[in-house]
Amino acid sequence: MKIKDITNYLEKLAPLHYAEDFDNVGLLVGNYDTEVKGVLVTLDTLESVIDEAIEKNCNLILSFHPIIFSGLKKLNGTTYVERVVLKAIKNDIAIYSIHTALDNSFKGVSFKMAEILKLKNTRVLLPKQGLIKKLTTYVPIDDAEKVRTALFNAGAGAIGNYNDCSFNFEGNGTYRGNENSNPTKGEKGRLHTEKETFISVIFEKHLQDNILKTLFKTHPYEEVAYDIVTTDNAHQHIGMGMIGELPKAMDEIKFLSLLKEKFHLKSIRHSQLLGKPIQKVAVLGGSGSFAIDAAKKDGADIYISSDFKYHEFYKAENQLILADIGHYESEQFTKNLLVDYLTKKFRNFAIILANTNTNPINYI
Predict the structure, then answer these.
(1) Based on the domain organization, do 197 and 258 belong to the same domain?
(2) C-alpha–C-alpha distance, residues 136 and 193, integer Å
């Protein structure tokens, strides 16, 4: 089995195009064609994690956070990042990072947090925008079904729980080919009128090249008339955070105690308690202050994330409780999610949960 067999399956859960533009995801060290001996799953790749991979005969490290985030200009071993990369290369260990691709996955980091809290009726808190495009084209009526079906097979026309979605109407198209043209219908130099079907379909941004390739291959015209626009529609199954409901409303003190228990917390930084039950809960793994307003707008009773700054706690404005449980703590179950996902596919292969605690923050 090669690294690409593992990563191709991972990218069904968290396609790399889900990642934020600032991020650095994918295979950071190594070669996709390398044979895999074993996979070690961790939140962070540190020197101690490389040591654990060596000890356990794993030559692929699946790390949530990317060890290489900004550009490396040298590899002298003067920083922990350089030392990790050098040690990985020296020991033929590949490093793959999934980070915000998994953050934006419907079954990703925040989904796992919601699962731990047994939330129901969950949905994405901040659906991602700019991912949905719309293709419009004009096809001779006799060829419309063939072209439309081919576009569906290429991934167009998928909306949430529905597939093969399109809008169609019939009209007349006109064109006149010059002396260098080779029209499929009509004659060069003569104005031609053709009964055509207007076809409009949406598709995810990353499919554009394949969608256009399919259109050009199946459309009968020498010159294909089409246009593509990016819509403002949010993708309801891709985005940051989750919001859902507890099976039963809980007293806020009891819920915070449950939160400490489920996430193995020593402490919780939180805004002022409001003296009302907790029912609707929003969660977001990692640094989540950017979604405070979304949690408020969605009517959450509590928003659980991490890395809130002092003044950001004021944003609660007595509308909800803000609970900062710690960056590592909010993402700690991501390792389990990835191990469980891979193990279901590769049952007879070594998928190992790292024992190394990579949390850089300590409490006294």
Answers:
(1) no
(2) 19
